[in-house]
UniProtKB/TrEMBL annotation:
Name this polypeptide is given: MMPL family transporter
Keyword Membrane in record: yes
Pfam entry (one): MMPL
UniProt cross-references to PANTHER family, sorted A to Z: MEMBRANE PROTEIN MJ1562-RELATED (PTHR33406), MEMBRANE PROTEIN SCO6666-RELATED (PTHR33406:SF11)
Taxonomy, superkingdom: Bacteria
Organism: Streptomyces typhae
Membrane topology type: Multi-pass membrane protein
Gene Ontology molecular function: transmembrane transporter activity
PROSITE patterns: SSD
Amino acid sequence: MATFLYRLGRFSFRRRRLVLVLWIAVLAAVGLGAASVSSSTTDSFSIPGTQSQQATDLLKKEFPQASADAATAQVVFKAADGQKLTSGAAKSEIESLVSGLGTAHQVARVADPYDEGAVSRDGTVAYAQVTYKVAQVDVTDRARDDLADIAAKGERAGLDVSLRGPAVAEETHQSASELIGILVAAVVMVITFGSLVAAGLPLLTALFGVGMAITGITVATAFIDLSSNTSTLALMLGLAVAIDYALFIVSRYRSELQAGRAPEEAAGRALGTAGSAVVFAGMTVVIALVGLGVIGIKILTDIGLGAAFAVVIAVLIALTLLPAMLGFAGARVAGGRYKTRRMRAVEDGRREAMGVRWVKFVLRNPVKVLGTAVAGLLLLAAPALSLQLTMPDDSTAAPGSTQRVAYDTVSDGFGPGFNGPLTVVVDARGSEAPKAAAKDAAALLKDLPDVASVSPATFNKGGDVALIRAVPGSSPSSEETVDLVSTIRDRSAALHGETGADLMVTGTTALNIDVSDKLNAALIPYLCVVVGLALVLLMLVFRSLLVPVKAAAGFLLSVLATLGVVVAVFQKGWFADVFGVDQTAPIVSILPIFMVGVVFGLAMDYEVFLVTRMREEYVHGAGPREAVVAGFRHGARVVTAAAIIMIAVFAGFVFSDTTMIKSMGLGLAAAVLLDAFVVRMTIVPAVMALLGDRAWSLPGPLDRLLPNVDVEGEKLRHLLDDDAEHTVQLAPVPVRKG
């Protein structure tokens, strides 16, 4: 692979205009496609095999008129201060609005709040339930506009009108905080390279790659249903890894120039060495992200595939467009107008780099440093013991959004449980007395604690399947509601024994609970698969047994500590004001398992970029400790810069209005911080010092079994150095300042 990448690097450098034109043409074509298609996203869930899905499928069959899979919306009305909705002009206005809703585009029916008892006891709040003729993904912009127009009409009449539900267009508030992350990345690269040209190339190619990935995902939404968070998470991860991958290749290119190589040769060698590590690192991230699809939850599959696509684009850009841009920049990349006095002293050998001083301190005190670092990570991980999972609902919508206002208004007027009523299905097809079975089921529900109300049973045409609406007394995401759903399902066996009927719970609340349970159950198996994959991949790279074990153990520590940080902030409310968390809630169910996949890939990035140089020095005859120091001398500065850039990019999403994006931004930023600086920069050298020569040993059977993939490009360097065509010592390339 290293030889192929070497040739690709030289080709892209030499034919830079052709490569640039081709990439621009591809971006233009994809951009035109994204601009011309009509795309839609969804946040609906479907989990085959769960009770809620089975009940939903039964409703579709036995209650076709109920349109179990149809899109819905809820229009919430609130009277002005001191007024009531039960009489006068306010009531007339609501009746007029409800009539207008009934004739709106794609609307199948509207439940009049006065006929359905959907008016609060104090007469200040009411809501109308709207059911559409189509599924959520098929709701048109015209239908959403009609809904918004009716709400605006109510506002003009003096009512407070808010909207919620799957059919409501999601309000998004773009934040400039992502730009702050990019600016931080630019500053870090200028400090790292001391050159605007060297700092600008990774940013330029990364932005190009992210644009390509986002437009590609937009085109895909015209043909497949994707989660609404797919693009955001692809942007988050794609931007971070694209900058990092370009950073490593540019750094190696500068090193080759400083060694006296011609620019084209330097580009080829940079791609053959650092490029090989980029391919491996990108492959680990992609495998972990695509692996999320085996869990069987659509939203997780969507964001995994979207983020994996962004990573693939980042790798392709780094291997083709970046060397082409290096061809335009030439030797100017090695310039250093903005180098500080300390940087010049380090380059001249008059001063040791901070990373070298740090690793020497760790090597002098490996036991103390290792014990302190592990204890600190375990302390951070402690809050994860109380981890609670839930799916996002309107209670976590952006403050001030129409969804959040509607949720809070219904909670104030009726109680929090009305935001997530339970659909209880009585399957009495095997019962001798279906009517009596439904009556017993309703009585059972009324006797349960935390049940606010139970509606009369509604039967299908055959009279053997009944539908009952039960409203919990607690909010949809509360532990009390989770326990209530579990209790109802537990009572099904007793009801079946008495009447022959089965009791099933479905609806959005129950479906979300089932999603959370399935994700919770999948977390440990997925973690085991990822750790096993890490062991195999790292054995291939380092031809060692203990180094992969150490890397996997460090990965587990960083994941647990990161989960602890997220739980502490979002679930327990520690430092909530600092991160703009306006209310505590259980952690979004997809976060832990998604974070495991992403952190695995990032952890392997830093492991490969830092430890491959250690192995290279050890193979060349350096002692175990000297190899560790050499690895830090050549890699610590770049790895530090890469980590800071990733932290800055991820941290920019902490200021998102969406709780799910906010928690992922904080989680990924914390994961990079802990994994890069505590695990890779501290625990790794301490463990390597304690292991000594044993770190690089591989049992004979494994040594013969595993192929030698040569990720660091060592064979390529030997091949080129032995080739007479490339052994001619070139004079140092004149470098222009700037």
